[in-house]
Amino acid sequence: MTATICDPWIERLITSGQLAPGARGLSREQAAEQYNGANALTESDHDFLYTPGQAAGAARDALAVIGLEVPADARILLTDGASGPRCWSYLVEPGQIEYACEQHRLTTGETINPTPILEALPWF
After folding, report:
1. From which domain of life does this come (predicted)?
2. What is the pLDDT of residues 85-103, one digit of tens each?
3. 73-95 b/e with 16+ CB inside 10 Å = b?
């Protein structure tokens, strides 16, 4: 008997109907790339799919535009309390992500929709 280890992130998206059961054999990045490519989605689309790691990278880039430098090795977590560094993570409020994405658009002209980032990041 062969045991298959399933990624809980991929399983959650299969259960919600966003990914097909065939995504079980893919990495997170491959599944997100396939989903976005099949649906012709870009970062400006509301239903663009980020992996948690990709969402953290996009959030880190957007937050840098408003002067919040998040260390590369810090895990970005959402909070409804005080934001800032905490142990091995960096806490941010959803409003900071939304504001950072808007400022990124105004600064660079490149639109990043904050909704998919917020949906992919874990809460503290």
Report:
1. Bacteria
2. 999 999 999 999 999 999 9
3. ebbbbbbeeebeeeeebbbbebe
Is residue 47, in this structure, part of any structural domain at all? Answer: no
DSSP-derived letter for residue 80 is: S
Same domain membership, residue 60 and residue 34: no
pTM, entire model: 0.84
Q: At what angle do helices 52-65 and 94-108 cross, to 10 degrees?
A: 60
Band of pLDDT at residue 124, cut at 50, 70 and 90 = confident
Identify the CA nearest to 19 among candidates 2, 37, 42. Answer: 37
Residue 115 tokens read as: 């909704």
Q: Residue 1 domain-assigned?
A: no
DSSP state of 78: E
